[in-house]
Amino acid sequence: MIRQQQTLILSPYAALYDIVVPKDNMLRKINEWLDFTFIYEELEAKYCLDNGRNAIDPIRMFKYLLLKAIFELSDVDIVERSKYDMSFKYFLGMAPEDTVINPSSLTKFRKLRLKDMNLLDMLIGKTVVLAVEQNILKSNSIIVDATHTKARYNQKSPQEILQDQARKLRKAVYTMNESAKVKMPVKNTTNVLEDEIAYCQKLIHFIETESGIAQVPKILEPLNLLKETVTDDVEQLRLATDPDARVGHKSADSAFFGYKTHLAMTEERIITAAVITTGEKNDGKQLERLVEKSKAAGMQVKTVIGDTAYSEKDNIVYSKNNDIELVSRLNPNITQGTRKKEDEFFFNKDAGMYVCKAGHMAFRKARQGKKDRGKNQRDTYYFDVEICKKCPLKEGCYIEGAKSKTYSVTLTSDAHSEQMLFQETEYFKTKAKERYKIEAKNSELKHAHGYDVATSSGLFGMQLQGAMAIFAVNLKRILKLAD
Fold it and tell me: How far apart are alpha carbons 30 and 67 in whole angstroms?
């Protein structure tokens, strides 16, 4: 049986919860407002229903992962806290005297039960429905943006990762017990990963059994992190660095190694859609998916607000075809033009041709690119190359030996022309000011929920982390707005 009683706690101590867990406690409110039985329906196919011993209640396991996302703790530390934190036990549906799970169960739950599930869309959809039921979601605008998450293993080798974590653990021990230095296991000096893993296992064993300070909170955190890396991720360590992470660019001179989370959020700051990709993916290409996912979650989308990355022509056409206002400024290359040496070539409106600074006029014009397909069209003007060869001003203009001399001008499409007019309206300028909200949401995900660095390796792990983190911030936002 995977369905167990979550609401009725048969314990002589159950009344303690009414005393020590306040009515306005966040976890109590989440329990009251959200029916978690959907977890049974989603995971039923992942369990054997007629063989073996009873499984740990999947709702409880899911709630453990939600607590991890809310409070940014490791598996070991979240289970440890659930031993004594009464709000945790109440949220998990446990009696006050109940024993807790083994932390390793969370690893199995992630790998065996949540694999191949569309957890991200499902959890976002649940919070959107909850926001609608609470009469919180009223706008029909979404704000789109992307935030980056660094890979857990970055571009360091697995051995360097272990060395860094072991170094932090040793340093924490030395601050508590300087004399432990002489008793520490001898550090690994080879370049063999297996030797480094073996050293870390010896270090963990020494601190847990001989140091006498393993239970000190200052030691526990780096100790648990090293243990989790060696045991939970040893397979990935042997394979090498994160197999799915890619190099992406935050700016022209700033890069990162990891993943991107493309978000859509309402003006009430409820996330309605997310697409998690590797780090090199283009932001603008995800707009259509974000809109369609938001609609599927229950949103009516009339306006999309985003930065310049989302104003590419395909998005303008898609928005127009779906009666959506796209509040995204065009790239300056389009609004200002991209003509090179425009101070050296002048347009003769009578002849309909360009003239170079030496006074020679183009003799032919050709249009390149098809209308309303892909990139904008261009007019290319051809000059007599024989004249160019002898021109006294050819330096910097004509390349010696070239068989032709041309000058091209990009034409603004009808779609771009309409967008140029739209972005000058007061409505556009007012709506564009709402974009700061999603930047604040990105900051909340990173600084309050550990979304700046991946907690595991691979795209699946990143999607799971994103699902739980976004679910957590949406629930917190709904609680705040409802209050």
Answer: 11
CATH class of 126-148+247-329+423-452: alpha beta
259, β-bridge pairs: 149, 278
Asked whether the beta carbons of 8 and 17 are under 8 A apart, the reply is no
Radius of gyration, CA atoms only, the chain: 30
Backbone angles phi, psi at 362, to 5 degrees: -65, 150
Measuring CA to CA, which residue among 299, 271, 270 is closest to residue 480?
Answer: 270
Token output for 146: 């992307």
Cα separations in angstroms, 75 against 45, 102, 186, 220, 225: 25, 9, 29, 12, 9
Is the dihedral angle over the CA atoms 252, 253, 255, 260 positive or is it negative? negative
State the pTM of this model.
Answer: 0.71
Domain ranges of the chain: 16-117, 126-148+247-329+423-452, 158-239, 333-412
Tokens of 423: 């972005």
**pLDDT (tens digit, 9 = 90+) per residue, 408-463?**
877 667 788 888 899 999 999 999 999 999 999 999 999 999 899 998 888 999 99
